[in-house]
Amino acid sequence: MTLNCSSADRTSAVVRFRFDETVSLADAEMSLHLAMFAVEGLFGRARVRLDAEYELIERDHCIDVDGGTEVGAMIVRVFTGLLLREFGEDSFRIERMTPANQHTEPERTACA
Q1: Range with the lowest mean pLDDT among 8-17, 28-37, 48-57?
Q2: Any idea what the Cα angle at residue 66 is, between residues 63 and 69, rounded to 5°?
């Protein structure tokens, strides 16, 4: 799924989920997919495909989610709830990204 932060509004709405090394990034990504599936029930598949964006950053052991749309904000909320239940409060941190703490030219992944 692409994290296409072309506008300033989107860039400032990115939420970074930084995981402990004990958390499998693949398992965390599966939880994100489950959150996206749940949000499809509220907004429909097409709207989630259009508005949902994320980036998996293996070297930093984190996932960035674009929360700049109504769909993205709901995905962030559902994803957070799933992570709390699956991995526990102390297994990850949430950071709201600003242009100053964004990394440059991230590797992009396409949405399916």
Answers
A1: 8-17
A2: 155
What is the CB neighbour count within 10 angstroms for residue 94? 13
The amino acid at residue 103 is H
Bridge partners, 96 (sequence order)? 15
pLDDT in tens, 40-70: 999 999 999 999 999 999 999 999 999 999 9
2 within 8 A of 108, measured Cβ to Cβ: yes
97: helix, strand or coil: coil
Query: Are 65 and 54 a contacting pair, CB within 8 Å?
Result: yes
Selected residue with higher pLDDT from 112 and 63: 63
Buried/exposed code over 74-85 (b: 16+ C-beta within 10 A; e: otherwise): bbbebbbebbee
- 14's enclosing H/E stretch is strand 14-19
